[in-house]
Design a protein that fits this description.
Chain lengths: 110, 110, 110, 110
């Protein structure tokens, strides 16, 4: 049975193929595109307290970020669930609960 | 049956709860964190042709970006699959195939 | 008499020429470099109140950002003082005092 | 005699005072603002070869970046010329000519 992640990837592939856009999608430009959208999400919080940011814009920019991230994963044949769970595990070692609990310190300051 | 997306979200929630980190996770700082990781992904391509970027670093930074993006979605109760598919549909209207095919132009220049 | 801006530009040009680095300095990679440094400055504020950021790191990252910005201006033959003063003037029209005073609203919301 | 840098800083201070905007200008939001503009500069190169980016947009976004960078320096009482020249000197040690000439490698890979 098709997973949610696979459903999304199929729609992204179809969207790009219909428009013959894969020719533009090298990793460097995709990474630039993702950074541009990340900054548009950031902009929704500029000069504001977190609670005052516009939810529709957060939703829109987050969707753009996720779509770029999924396309980059697809381009490099990276299994999205696997790389995310793997990074959570590695972060668990960098930030052991007994040292990191309740602390915002970076791992090299723990 | 639990979806892949739900599995990942559960691991992220558990990771944050064990470390009592939700207190730091307002939308503004999460958006900053995501931008910081997006720039670390970008840095893997700096001065390089796309094909020469280090795949391990791409994998690592992309996982960090995705983990932040999923946490932001979770914080705002946004359904990840729904917002992504919805944005693909809206992009399909902004970039109709007959106008956008083979073109890298932004929608307001089509 | 040489201006401060000219002094800095001369040092940057000398630095790059000694190392034969101009070959790498196309506008796209310089813009990527600047974004990478901008994110490093941002990172000094991550999870923190503004007053708690490390001043040495702010100083270091800001210097990196300025060095990239001056190099980009130099590459495109842009007069730094002229483009900055010109933009302040244009912002003054976008944000007239009578409408913008005391408000954090973006110009299209005034 | 007033330097160019001092002239620009005076105009920025006047602009902010007239609009009573200093209340919003904490370091964290200024750093966010700078990152947002850095991404707008980056966007001028998205999907393009460096030579095809629009010069007017490069000029505009670079001016925005510089204006934010100068305001951050002013807020933290950092002497712009001093921190830039100091960083060039430190980079000269990190990237000695005999090792770094003609190479795009990062200092920890030299």
């Amino acid at each position: 049975m098709e997973t949610d992640i696979e459903t999304i990837l199929k729609e992204l592939r179809k969207f790009n193929q219909e428009r013959d856009w894969n020719q533009f999608h090298n990793g460097k430009d995709l990474a630039i595109g993702l950074s541009v959208e990340a900054a548009e999400l950031l902009e929704t919080f500029l000069w504001k307290d977190p609670e005052d940011a516009n939810l529709d814009k957060i939703r829109e920019e987050l969707a753009d970020i996720l779509n770029y991230a999924f396309q980059i994963a697809d381009k490099y044949n990276l299994d999205i669930k696997e790389i995310m769970l793997d990074k959570i595990l590695r972060n668990a070692k960098k930030y052991p609960v007994e040292k990191a609990k309740g602390s915002a310190k970076k791992y090299n300051e723990l």
